[in-house]
Amino acid sequence: MYTLESYMFEGQVRSAFYTLEQIECLTSAIRGDIYSQFSDRTPMSVAEAAKAVGKSAQTVHYHVNELLDVNLIMPAGTRKSWARTETVYVRSAINSVIDESRRDEAYVDAVIRRFKALARSLAREREAFHKAWLKNSSARELSLVRWEVLRLSDTGITEAKKLITELRDTVREHQLSEGGHRVRFMTYLSPTVSESKEIVKRASKK
Fold first, then answer.
1. Cα separation of 147 and 191, whole Å?
2. % of the chain residues with pLDDT over 70
3. Which residue, 48, 84, 139, 153, has most beta carbons within 10 Å?
4. Burial of 84 (0-12, 13-18, 19+ CB in 10 A)
5. pLDDT-based confidence at 178, cuts 50/70/90?
6. Burial class (CB in 10 A: 0-12, 13-18, 19+), 114
7. What is the pTM of this model?
8. How far apart are CA 199 and CA 143, in angstroms?
């Protein structure tokens, strides 16, 4: 089972806010896909990341250097691969989050562009999943999608955020170093467009 203390690498931090430079780096959809392949627990090489995203090692190596430059990933040692020695990497922070307190235009704009890049990646991922499902119906056991709009009180939203965080931490405890299936696990809670517009309208009247 995964425990935080057992798997922290030297120089790795437990939590960090994404910096502007890091968010800017992830506004590239392909770079975001590559970053997603890296774990905070299990080191991965450029060759392994290239195989995971279906790109050439040369392409992935370029993007890995970009991720290294902004400290999104870090070297976690080396290992032998056939006749050569390769560097392996992990995420620099176990838990990286958007800094919701920042209101500067550059940061907010970068976050929005990161979301757009992520949406493109998710669409490609879902398309690939449906192709796999058509070939093998058991693939559906690897997927779960639920979304709905709820009306919650401030207390209800606070409790929901707490439960979502606890769920994420619980799921992370089941990570494997090898074997199993690679899946994307996401949590997302946000005001609807209309709710955000109402917030702006109320603020304008003050």
1. 13
2. 97
3. 48
4. exposed
5. confident
6. buried
7. 0.87
8. 35
**Cα–Cα distance for residue pair 44/47, rounded to 1 Å:** 8
- The model's pLDDT over 117-160, given as tens digits with 9 standing for 90+, comes to 999 999 999 999 999 999 999 999 999 999 999 999 999 999 99
Q: Is 13 helix (H, G, I), strand (E, B) or coil?
A: strand
Contacts made by residues 113-121, CB under 8 angstroms, sequence distance 24+: 113/27, 114/23, 114/26, 114/27, 114/32, 116/27, 117/26, 117/27, 117/28, 117/29, 117/32, 118/29, 118/32, 120/29, 121/29, 121/32, 121/33, 121/36
| Ramachandran bin of 180, using left for φ above 0, alpha for ψ from -120 to 50, beta for the remaining angles | left
The tokens describing 151, both together, are 């009306």
Query: What SS3 class is residue 15?
Result: strand
- Tell me the Cα Rg of the chain: 19
Q: Which residue in the block uniquely carries the two structure tokens 């009306």?
A: 151
- Cα(84)–Cα(54) distance, rounded to whole angstroms? 22
Query: Torsions phi, psi of 107, nearest 5?
Result: -70, -45
DSSP for 100-160? TT---HHHHHHHHHHHHHHHHHHHHHHHHHHHHHHH-GGGGGG-----------HHHHHHH
